[in-house]
Specification:
429 residues, eight-stranded antiparallel beta sheet, Helix Hairpins, rod-shaped, Glucose Permease (Domain IIA), 2 domains, 55% helix, alpha+beta
């Protein structure tokens, strides 16, 4: 049977189809699984986050292995379908040839049948003529030879009549024999053409049966290819979701690790402290604490002139200035504020939206010009709540926390510019 050896793979495709139906539920569970359920201390949260990250990495690896297997299966089925298409075209030509030969044999059979009937009719006509002559001669022969002799004009005429009767009789008998032979030959040809037609009919039926079998194999292979492609698309979605969740999990690990390091950093005591003159615009030495964080949409840290851009979080993961990142030292032109994905981002001051869209490593970014030489930037957003040219007020939601562009996790990169040059945002809180 055609491709019978490949049918053993059908169980694999059925299993893939069944497993693919579980992917959506699995993805949903992965997306909502917390990094820590019962963790209370930062150390416990860090350990739980690392365990969750390890599980995600293992699942991602298994998914990628299954993806490779599915890609191989899809290619194999695609090649098999191409071969079947070529085989179907070839077999269709065989079937059409057999069908044409069958039609030709049918025409010959009809011609031989007509020739046989004509030959048979000539034999019957000749046989009838021969019978009439025999009857007439029989009537003549009932007369005595004396009567035939007396009725003849001469002796010559008498012998001529007797010989002529003999010649006619012999000629009719020969003609009948010839016609009988011709009829038998026509019958033989008729039977031969009929047998040929029957044989070609069987051949055409067999060719059609093989063609239908190939088409059935094509349909089955196409269904299996569709199932493999569907499973492949689901596993690709699973890989993408796992990769996204893995990035968030890695961000949690980094955040808890940084927090744990800060909590366990040894404190140093200084015996002397130089006198400094503090002005209103002097930059603070540390980020606002959670107690200092604003509680409302337009509130700001006491003493500041800007509203805090992330009302739900005051956790700063990277400060303004030089820092070590991505394997090297680079200048950080703003501050990074970690927050939950999708959290509100508000305008630090009122102004005009001069940019709202994608901007290279910033990802999705909103830029607001405050009209007095100051402007602010809000980067790595997951979405926008404003548009280019819009007038926004202090505390108005302009976007949502994300991780677009060059980012390792959900946070806001916040910059303050004064006459086009970046300044430390914390100077204004």
């Amino acid at each position: 049977m055609i491709l019978q050896e490949n049918r053993s793979n059908t169980k694999v495709y059925k299993l893939l189809r069944l497993s693919s139906l579980m992917l959506v539920l699995f993805i949903a569970l992965v997306l909502v699984l917390p990094a820590s359920v019962h963790a209370t201390s930062t150390k416990e949260k860090l350990d739980s986050a690392r365990q969750h990250l390890s599980e995600l990495e293992s699942e991602l690896k298994n998914t990628q292995t299954q993806l490779n297997e599915l890609r191989s299966a899809e290619k194999k089925l695609s090649d098999e379908l191409s071969w079947l298409s070529a085989r179907s075209a070839e077999q269709n030509r065989v079937y059409q040839d057999a069908l044409q030969q069958k039609e030709t044999a049918y025409s010959i059979m009809l011609e031989d049948e007509a020739a046989y009937q004509q030959s048979l009719q000539r034999f019957f006509d000749k046989q009838e003529q021969y019978g009439e002559r025999i009857s007439q001669m029989y009537k003549w022969q009932k007369k005595s030879m004396l009567e035939m002799l007396l009725s003849s004009d001469s002796l010559q005429c008498f012998f001529t009549t007797v010989r002529f009767m003999k010649v006619i009789s012999d000629a009719d008998e020969q003609a009948l024999n010839d016609l009988e032979s011709a009829s038998e030959e026509a019958e033989t040809m008729r039977l031969r053409s009929e047998n040929s037609f029957n044989e070609l009919t069987v051949l055409a039926e067999e060719a059609e049966s093989v063609l239908q079998q190939i088409k059935s194999e094509q349909a089955m292979t196409q269904r299996e290819l569709d199932e493999a492609s569907y499973s492949l698309s689901l596993y690709q979605q699973r890989e993408e979701n796992l990769s996204a969740v893995k990035e968030d999990a890695q961000s949690d690990v980094n955040r808890y690790a940084t927090q744990y390091e800060i909590e366990n950093r040894p404190t140093t005591t200084t015996t002397t402290r130089p006198k400094t003159t503090t002005t209103k615009t002097q930059a603070p030495t540390q980020a606002p604490t959670q107690a200092q964080a604003p509680t409302g949409g337009g509130a700001s840290v006491p003493g500041g002139s800007f509203a805090w851009p992330v009302p739900s979080s005051a956790y700063i993961t990277s400060y303004y200035g030089w820092r070590n990142i991505f394997g090297g030292t680079s200048w950080h032109a703003g501050i990074d504020i970690a927050a939950g994905y999708g959290s509100n981002v508000i305008a630090a001051r009122g102004g005009t939206v001069t940019y709202c869209g994608w901007l290279g490593s910033y990802g999705n970014i909103v830029i607001i010009d405050h009209g007095d030489g100051f402007s602010t930037r809000y980067a790595h957003l997951s979405g926008f709540n404003c548009y280019y040219g819009q007038q926004v007020s202090r505390g108005q939601v302009v976007g949502f926390i994300g991780s677009t562009g060059r980012s390792t996790g959900p946070h806001l990169h916040f910059e303050v510019l004064k006459y086009g040059s970046t300044v430390n945002p914390l100077s204004y809180y």
